[in-house]
Design a protein that fits this description.
By secondary structure, the chain is an alpha/beta fold. It contains five helices and seven strands. It has a seven-stranded mixed sheet, sandwiched between helices. About 3% of the residues have low confidence.
Length: 204
C-alpha cells in the first residue's frame, strides 16, 4: 500500500464523538514511551503527523487520522507509566476500554512492544484483556534497530512463549519494526491493505 494522503481529523475523549464514517479503523496502542508516534510517522511517511515527545504519556486523547481517504489510523493514549494524576489515568483507562468495546468500525488493534525489554506484566495483562474481550489485535515490536538479529529473535520468542503460557493456544500475529530504519513498514501496510479489501468486500 502506498500512503497518498494522511490527515488529522479530530481528538476527543469520548468514543461516541469519534467520526461517524463507516470506514475501517486500526488502533495503535502501547505502554508510554514505546515509540508509537514515531512508528505512526514512519508508516505514513509524514514526519510531524503524530506528535513525538521525550516525555512519556503525552498522548492523552483518541486521535483519528484519515489515510488515503478510505481508512482511519487511531492513535490511543499509552497505558502504564505516565506523568498524570491517578484520576486522569483512570479516565484514560475508561475511554480506552470504551473505545475497544464500543467502536464497531475497529478492524484490528496493533499493540506496540519495545523489543529491547523482557516481557512486561502490564503488556501481558493488556493483551490478555484484549483476548478475553475478543478484540482482534497484532503485536508490533518497536525499536528493532537497537538490537542484533539474534537478540531480536530471542526477545520475540520470549514474549510469544510467555503468551502461550497464559490463555493463548496460538500466539497473535506479530511484526518487527524500526521507525528509524523503516523496517516493517511495507509488511504492516500490506497487512492493513489486505484487511481493507476484506472489509469493503463484506460491506458491498
Amino acid at each position: 500500500m502506498k500512503i497518498k494522503s494522511a490527515d488529522f481529523v479530530m481528538s476527543n475523549s469520548n468514543v461516541t464523538n469519534c467520526p461517524k464514517d463507516r470506514l475501517p479503523e486500526y488502533a495503535f496502542i502501547g505502554r508510554s514511551n514505546v515509540g508509537k508516534s514515531s512508528l505512526i510517522n514512519m508508516l505514513t511517511q509524514r514526519k510531524g503527523l503524530a506528535k513525538t515527545s521525550g516525555r512519556p504519556g503525552k498522548t492523552q486523547l483518541i486521535n483519528h487520522f484519515k489515510i488515503n481517504e478510505n481508512w482511519f489510523l487511531v492513535d490511543l493514549p499509552g497505558y502504564g507509566y505516565a506523568r498524570v494524576s491517578k484520576k486522569d489515568k483512570k479516565t484514560f483507562q475508561k475511554y480506552i476500554t470504551d473505545y475497544f468495546l464500543e467502536r464497531i468500525q475497529l478492524v484490528c488493534a496493533f499493540v506496540l512492544i519495545d523489543i529491547r525489554h523482557e516481557p512486561q506484566k502490564v503488556d501481558l495483562e493488556f493483551m490478555e484483556w484484549m483476548g478475553e474481550n475478543q478484540i482482534p489485535f497484532c503485536i508490533v515490536f518497536t525499536k528493532a534497530d537497537k538490537l542484533r538479529p539474534k537478540a531480536i529473535e530471542n526477545h520475540v520468542n520470549d514474549y510469544l512463549n510467555k503468551l502461550l503460557e497464559g490463555i493463548w493456544e496460538q500466539a497473535p500475529l506479530h511484526f518487527i519494526t524500526s521507525s528509524s530504519s523503516g523496517m516493517g513498514q511495507e509488511e504492516l501496510l500490506d497487512y492493513i491493505d489486505g484487511l481493507n479489501e476484506s472489509f469493503f468486500k463484506e460491506t458491498l
